[in-house]
Design goal:
single chain; alpha/beta; Rossmann fold; seven-stranded mixed sheet; two-stranded antiparallel ribbon; globular; binds S-adenosylmethionine
């Protein structure tokens, strides 16, 4: 289903600079129309963010692809995602062979993603809670991806990132954010690349914004 639309989307992503074959292959496999509300299914393969209820969004495909490419995944990395939302980003990571942990602070959104993953047989650990605190129990993580924008990089996430690991996180004010691609060189040394002009819903929590 939607094969032509998917192939068109892959072309768009490729033109915008997504060249990682494994990322593009995952976009051919994962059915984005299953992750959006029924009523807007026909927009699922357009390169736009879409509403998923509770004032939240499924990120624009380009943004998902850009962040996934920036993670430079290797083998079967252990990946922590903050902001499960629709579950689409997590499904892309699972499709690419990663061991995925994903945290969502909105209980209904978390439950909906869990139900969808059960129905589709997608294996990932979906956790309900404040992702700015990370998930200590399964740390360290080879990769961390944060899909909501906060005022700064949560210190606990930096701590839970493995040495040699990478984190991708949008940081800024509530209107626009800069994507930070952080490499952890040693326990207290990091190298950061910044790419401006992203727009995310707010990261709300103990080490994020304090209110909606
Ligand atoms: N990755 C998602 C996807 O593929 O659909 C898109 C996520 S949406 C742009 C951001 C999500 O982050 C929202 O569902 C929001 O409730 C969640 N969120 C915001 N602050 C959070 C926090 N502190 N911990 C966990 N989730 C959070």
């Amino acid at each position: 289903m939607y094969e032509t639309e998917k192939e068109e989307l892959i072309k768009v992503l490729n033109k915008k600079g997504i060249t990682d074959e494994n990322v593009l292959k995952a976009f051919l496999k994962v059915e984005r129309h299953l992750f959006v509300p029924e009523i807007i299914k026909h927009h699922a393969y357009s390169d736009v963010a879409l509403p998923i209820g509770h004032e939240q969004t499924i990120s624009q495909p380009y943004t998902v692809a850009f962040m996934t490419q920036a993670l430079e995944l290797e083998g079967r990395n252990k990946v922590l995602e903050i902001g499960t939302g629709s579950g689409f980003q997590a499904a892309i990571l699972v499709e690419m062979g990663m061991k995925v942990f994903s945290i969502e602070r909105n209980y209904e959104i978390h439950q909906r993603a869990q139900k969808l993953f059960d129905e589709l047989g997608i294996r990932a650990a979906l956790i309900y809670g404040d992702g700015t605190l990370g998930w200590e129990e399964s740390a360290p993580y080879d990769r961390i991806i944060v899909t909501a924008g906060g005022p700064e990089v949560p210190k606990r996430l930096l701590k839970q990132l493995a040495v040699g690991g990478k984190m991708v996180i949008p940081v800024g004010d509530r209107k626009t954010q800069t994507m930070q691609i952080i490499s952890k060189i040693s326990t207290d040394e990091y190298k950061t690349i910044e790419i401006p002009n992203f727009k995310f819903v707010p990261l709300i929590g103990k080490e994020g914004w304090k209110s909606e």
